[in-house]
Amino acid sequence: MNKGVIVKIGSNTSHVLAGEQILVASLKGGVLKDKTPLVGDIVEFEMIDEYKIMIVKIEERKTELYRPKIANVNQVGIVASLKEPKLDHYVLLKMMAYLNSQNIETFIIFTKKDLLLEEDEIIKNQITWFEKLGIEMVILNNKEIPTKDFKKLEQILKDKITVLTGQTGAGKSTTINHFLEFEDQIKTQTISKALNRGKHTTTSIQLYKLPQNILLADTPGFSSFEIKNISAELISSTFTPFQDMYYQCKFRNCLHVKEKGCYVKQALENNELAQFIYDDYKKIISEIKPKKETTTWKK
Q: Which CATH fold would you assign to the domain 65-218?
């Protein structure tokens, strides 16, 4: 049976990548009874003609993300601009906390390095702290990516399905455009300096087939989001910046806020942890209401 990956979903048809070819697909009656197709789904299909196919089966999903709606993703890249809009480390860390709690591999793409000035020492210091914590990241000049930075990003993406997520105007589409031919590039818009936010240009999810067996998804940006149905205990035990410290806390269910014998708080006092990261973490925990723990991923 022929197989492919859904890369785009329209109102009546889907687009399926089979080898190097994009085919227009319709659904065989009865397929929708089992599950609704998502971008990223691996499907079995029958040929109708040279460019049209009929999807007859959606294979079992390895992972399923509901926000954004996409299946079989291997990792998520959190895209954060350093300026225009200025770096919002709270939103970045909140997204990381959410993805960590769902056992999703994450990395950071910092964009617009070319806009940093000598006096932007606070931002530069914050980047240094992320590096000290061993969080995988790439820092890009989005006007022209140096070869070494491009190759580093390419290696992270190689042989994987990756979703880029982040605030509106952070540079998700621009980052993908560095991989695409001009005629395939995604439309982007300028930043509203008065509001320190970008304008929505990506309105739907699409997977792009790139060299090195890369499948990369652009997603609509956001200005804010809420963590729902996830316990504070799960966040505290999975938060990447605290991973090497969590198991050294005196109590296994330590929330790193008021508990005695907390190694995270000790690291903060010893200047082994940045104050802004700890403050953002406490704010994330304070916003989480006691609820039954659930997951938005299926494995």
A: Rossmann fold (3.40.50)
